[in-house]
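pls read this stuff:
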Amino acid sequence: MKKLGPSILPIIVAIILIQTLRFKFTAHPDSVYIFTKVGLEPYGRIGIGVLELIAGVLLLIPKTTWIGAVITMGVLGGAISMHLTKLGIEIHDDKGVLFFTAVITFVLSAIILWTRRKEISIHKNL
């Protein structure tokens, strides 16, 4: 059971990331609204979608799971910051679902990174 958590968390985070891509890549009105409001439409929407796709794939490869977690934390840290500074918690009456999903996914990515911390190799001569 102790091994199940570290194995399933990257899959959960990857699913969350990948399922949101259809909104970004199809220019869903909510996605366009969000990125317009923060001044990143359309290139930021597409670029962040690409980063989330890369992170989702990296999370599913055991040797690169920690890299996917770092990218996810970076992207979602930015999303959380935008919610707190420019967007607000609630977007188009979603009751904060988008914001809280970002927070939960960020926390799950932090847990993944913590559990995989021994896999991170840093050269001592850098």
